[in-house]
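Structure tokens please, single chain.
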Amino acid sequence: RDIKTTLGMDVLKSKTPEMVEKEILMYIVVFNVMRQIIYDVSDQYKPSQFSFKSSIQTLLSYHHQYGSKEGRSTHQFKKSLLSEIAYCLLYQREGRVEPRQIKRRKKPFKWLTKPRREIIDDLCLKCA
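Here you go.
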């Protein structure tokens, strides 16, 4: 569940089973690549001491800032990205023990229990 939430997989956007499978596969690839990047930068610290969420946010930030800019070599880009991810450590707070349990956030909307077209027609009748 943590991977789903962290990577934004709580709602898949694909419509066909084949595309859903590809979408899930791509999320798994991103997860594994990010874990490999964290492993690569973990010289002084254990990979488990790095924040996965912060690392993902750093990667996305770099992608948006530098992804389309020319004049910067791939080697420079990678070196700069890895040095930033090396700072994405989890904070160690003394005397803190937090259980890995959360309450599921309740969404403010009702479940869609009828076909969408039927609900739209009902709403249109109420408006008229």
